[in-house]
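Protocol step 4 of 5: obtain the predicted structure for the target chain.
Materials: sequence only (see below). No template structures provided, no constraints applied. The aim of this step is simply to have a reference model before the mutagenesis design in step 5. Sequence pasted as it appears in the construct record:
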Amino acid sequence: MSTILVVSGTGTEIGKTVVTAAVAAAARGRRVAVLKPAQTGLAPGEPGDAAEVARLAGSHVTAVELARFPEPLAPATAARRAGLAPVRPFEVAEAAQKLATEHDLVLVEGAGGLLVRFDDEGSTLADAARLLSAPVLVVAPAGLGTLNATALTAEALRSRGLGCRGVVIGSMPAEPDLASRCNIEDLPVAAGAPLLGAVPAGAGALPGADFAAGAARGLAPELGGGWAPGLSRHQRCV
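Step 4 output (structure tokens):
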């Protein structure tokens, strides 16, 4: 049976695409598709997030993008300013379900956070996840301020009857500060869901083969990796 997993963030530029690529890379041996409902901030022909996931994760990944808007704005605003039709949750759900008939794992990567608007009616990635009855993997930053944003995202999921698969830190510094170390312990409490990894900062700049190995080290066994919290003194809240 194919699995559909929605990947959302507590904000933007926090490593969501790299985490999506890490999950895809850890699923080597399975047929994987990554679906990007709305790509903003890129001109036609420029590689988007879905293509970046495929570049990092490998040739077993199918990359699909539903809509592209040139300005780096929320999808609803970018679509309106470009005079283009917005992407709708039912379109996301239909595309994901179609991919699921031909792939073992479908990763749906959102834009920004969970409640960023897709259209002027207020539709969001959460609506697409609900239509798919799919769990949501939350990507969060490592440092100060992440607990509140993670708790708010988790609360939004619960209020909509959506499951939180867990939390992954999108960019863990090699020398984390005190807040980042303590958040290893505190993020699962804030989310009410397990911490399923901490992808090393800079992983997205690695070549594909090296990235795949790094991804395995940055994800918990539940996501196909070998990461566990508290493996070194740098991950202790001391």
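Step 4 remarks: The chain has eight helices and seven strands. The radius of gyration is 17 Å.
Proceed to step 5.
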